[in-house]
Amino acid sequence: MVERHALKEVIADTERRFWGCVMLPITLAFFGFYSLSSILHEDVPSKHITEFPVRNVLNPLLGEDDEATAEMLDGLTTASDVLKPQYV
């Protein structure tokens, strides 16, 4: 006859293996999504093309004699600069 303690260990081991098999597709999907996000995160040319127009409007390149205005991010120095309407 099989001892009761040995049978409990076999059942617990079988349950661990079962949940390991159930988690395998989830683990592979996580690995796939993580790999895809890391590839897309490093897509520097695409991000530059997407963000450049906005960056150019909010923070244009200034010459040596140019001053930043309140329409630019560099010209915002106080909270009231942000809150006051620019085009009235």
Tell me what the structure shows:
The structure is a single chain. The mean pLDDT is 81. Helix content is 66%, strand content 0%. The chain has a domain at 1-58. The chain contains 3 helices and no strands. The radius of gyration is 30 Å and the shape is rod-shaped. The protein is an all-alpha fold. The chain crosses the membrane at residues 21-40. This is Pkd2 protein. It comes from Symbiodinium pilosum. Keywords: Membrane, Transmembrane, Transmembrane helix.
Q: Could you give the order of the helices and strands?
A: HHH
Instruction: State Rg.
Output: 30 Å
Distance between the termini: 92 Å
* Structural classification: mainly alpha
The percentage helix is 55-70%
Number of strands: 0
- Largest sheet, strands/sense/barrel: none
* Unreliable sequence segments: none
Mean pLDDT: 81
* Count of runs of 4 or more consecutive helical residues: 3
Proportion of strand residues:
under 5%
| Overall 3D shape | rod-shaped
Structural key phrases:
membrane; transmembrane
Write the layout of secondary structure elements.
Layout: H1 4-41, H2 44-58, H3 79-83
What's this entry about, in short?
The protein has helices at 4-41, 44-58, 79-83. The protein has 88 residues and is an all-alpha fold.
